[in-house]
Amino acid sequence: MRLDPCDLFDVRSLLSDEERAVQDSVARFVDQRVLPVIGDCFDQARFPAELVPEIAALGLLGATLPPAYGGGGMDAVAYGLICQELERGDSGLRSFVSVQSSLCMHPIFAYGSEAQRLRWLPAMARGERIGCFGLTEAHGGSDPSSMKTRAVREGDQWRLDGSKMWITNAPIADLAIVWAQTEDGVQGFILERGMAGFSVQEIGRKMSLRASSTGALFFDQVQVPEANRLAGVVGMKGPLGCLNQARFGISWGPIGAAIACLREVLAYAGQRELFGRPLAATQSAQIKLADMARRITGAQLLALQLGRLKEAGRLQPQQVSLAKWNNCRMAIDIARECRDLLGAAGITTEHAAIRHALNLESVITYEGTETVHQLVIGRELTGLTAF
C-alpha cells in the first residue's frame, strides 16, 4: 500500500477522533469555498469577507476558548489543524483567524474583566465583531519594547497618542487591542471604531498577503474609558503572551501551504512531459520531491509534539520559536522549489506556488523574524543574549 505523499509518517493516526473531525471539516470548507475564489482575491488584493460568517459558523473563531464565551473548547492540536488547513487555502485567511482568535480574543479572555469578556467575546466568535492587534510600530519592528505610543491617565479616562503599523484586519476591524506605554509600564486597551481621534489607513501596493486586509492605526488624543483597559496584566508579558499564542498557530499554518504546493507540483510533474518522459520520472525532480516530503514530515511531527506540550501545560516560548523558525523556513523553501518545477507556468496565480511563496515572505517575517527566533534559541543554548 502506497503512503500518503503528504503524510509519510501517518501523523493523522496520532490524532484523536475529534481532532480528525475538525481537520476534515475545515479541509472541506477550504476545498469547496476557499480554493475556488482565493486566486482571484489575491489578484484583486481583496480579503474574502463574505467567508467570515461561514468561518464563524464552523466554530473557528476563538476555537479554544470556553463555550460560555462563544468558543469551541477545542484542544491545542485541533486549533493547530485549523490553522494548517486554512493556510493550505491561503496565509491571509489563516492570518485573519489567528489575529481574531489569538491576538484579540485571547487577551480579552486572559487579561480582561468578566464584563469585557461577555461584551466582546461571543460577538467576536460569531464574526459580528472583528478585532485587530496594535503592537508593531513603524520604527520598532523586532523591538516592541521601544514603542512610542503612550497612554496617560486622566481621571476615569486614558488619553492615548501614537500609531501602529502593519496591522492585520485593521481596515475591517470594529475594535483594536492596543498596547501603550504608561507610567506603570506597558498596558493594553480596547479601542472601538468611531472613537474620536482614532483613525485607520489601509496599506496598499503589497506583493504578499494580498488577500489579507492590512493597515496602520493612528491615535490623536483618543479618550479611552478605564472600563476599556485590560487590567489583568502590566508589562511586555501581556503582548508577548498573545504573540506566543499566535506563533503556535503560525507553526502549523505553513505546513498547509507546503502541502498545497507539493500536491500541486506532484500532479503537474506526473503530466508534464519533457524529452519523452514525465518530469516526475527524472532523478532531479524526484530528489526535490523527496526532500520536500522529508521536510514536511519533520514539520508535522514537530508541530504535533508542540501541541501535546501545550495541552500538557509544559510548552515553553523557546519551543514555539524553534517551531515557527523551522516550519516557516521549510514552507517558503518548498514553495520556491515548487515554483521552479512548474517552470514559466509557476509565475502565474493559475498555480498556487507563487502565491504561497509570496505570502510566506510575510509569515516568516511577522511575529518574530527568522533571525529573532534563531537568536532566541541561541540564547537558550548559551545563556547569553545577542539581541
TrEMBL record:
This protein's pathway: Amino-acid metabolism; lysine degradation; Amino-acid metabolism; tryptophan metabolism
One molecular function GO term is: flavin adenine dinucleotide binding
SUPFAM superfamilies from the UniProt entry: Acyl-CoA dehydrogenase C-terminal domain-like, Acyl-CoA dehydrogenase NM domain-like
Q: Which GO terms describe its biological process?
A: fatty acid beta-oxidation using acyl-CoA dehydrogenase; fatty-acyl-CoA biosynthetic process
Pfam assignment, any one: Acyl-CoA_dh_M
Domain Acyl-CoA dehydrogenase/oxidase N-terminal as annotated: residue spans: 16-128
Pinpoint the Acyl-CoA oxidase/dehydrogenase middle domain residues: 132-222
Alphabetically list the UniProt keywords.
Answer: FAD, Flavoprotein, Oxidoreductase, Transit peptide
Question: Start and end of every Acyl-CoA dehydrogenase/oxidase C-terminal domain?
Answer: 235-381
Q: Which family does it belong to?
A: Belongs to the acyl-CoA dehydrogenase family.
Name under which the protein is recorded: glutaryl-CoA dehydrogenase (ETF)
